[in-house]
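#lab-general

N.A. 3:47 PM
ok so I finally got the sequence cleaned up, no stray characters, all 323 residues accounted for. can someone with queue access submit it? mine expired

B.Y. 3:52 PM
send it over

N.A. 3:53 PM
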Amino acid sequence: DTRLVRFKATIGGEIMTVYIDPDYTGGGNDGTISAPWTAWADFSFQAGETYAAQGGTTTTPTAQLNITVDNVTITSYGTGQHFIDPNFTSGKTIRTAAAGLKFQNIKIGIPNLSSGVGRYCFQSAAGTADILIEYCTLVGESVDEDSRCIDFGTALTSPMVIRNNTISGANTAIVLNTTVAAGTVSYINDNVITCTPNVTKAGDSDGISLIGGADWNYSLSIYNNDISGFAENGIDFVGATNVLCYGNEVHDAVATSVVSPAGFLLGQTGGGMTGNKVYRNEIYNILHGGLTTPAAGIGSRGGASCEVFSNLIYDCDWGIYNG
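B.Y. 4:20 PM
back already:
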C-alpha cells in the first residue's frame, strides 16, 4: 500500500487546490482537476492545502481521516455536495488535531457501527483550534446514546464557528468543551438541527451541549438555530457561563420514559451556571413522557443565576421550571 505525498505547487504565491473525484477513470492521477485523486487514501494532508471533492459523488473511506497539519480546507467543487460516507466501524469519520481548519459545503456521515458508543462525524484531539464548519450536511445515526455529529468534547481552543449547517440523525448534534482564548469570538448560528435519540438510552440527547465549565465572557453567541427532536435538552449549558443565546427556535422534543426534556437547561444539580443571557427565543411543544418531573421550556436544577427575558414559550408542561 503506497501513499503518495503531493508536494505543494504554487501559482503566484498561492498553494494550489488538490482535487478528488471517485468517478474519474482517466489515469495519471496527480491531484489536479484534470487528473484528480479518486480516494482520500491516495494522498497525505499538507499544511495550507485546500482539498476539493467532486460534488454529487461519494467516497467511502475505510479508515478515519486524521488531520494533523494546520490551515487545511475540505470542500466540494462542481454541482452539489460531495459525500464522505465512512465504510468502517471505529468511532470517528474526521479527527482533528490542528489549527485553522475549514470544512465547507460538504456532506459527512458517521461510521456504520451497529452497536457500542462513541461514533462521531467530527471529533477533536489535542491541538485543535480555530475551526470553521459551514454550509455542510452532517448525517448521524442513533444506535447508541453517545452518537454525535460534532464532538469537540476535549481539546478545542476558540475561536470556533459552526454556521449554516444541516445536522441530523445523531442522539446529540453538537458537544463542546472549549478553552476560550482571549480576544477571540465564536458563533453557533443558523443551523438546522434535528436529533434522533435512541429512546431507550435518551439520557444524553441534546441539540447543543456546552460541557466543561468554560467562561466565555460573552464571546460565544448561539443564535438563529432551529433545534428539534432531542429527548433531553435543546441547549444544555451544563457548565458554561457568560454565553449569549438568542433568536433560536427550540421545539418538538421527543417524549420518552427515560428523561423529561427542557428546551434550555441553565443549571445542573450541585451548582448553577452564571451570567448566561437567554432571550428572544421561541420554545414550544416540550412535553414529558409520563414521568413525574414535568418537561419545561426553560429548566434549572442548580439555582442558575442567569438573565432570561423576552422568550416566547408555549405548549410545554411548564414554561419555566426550577427544581
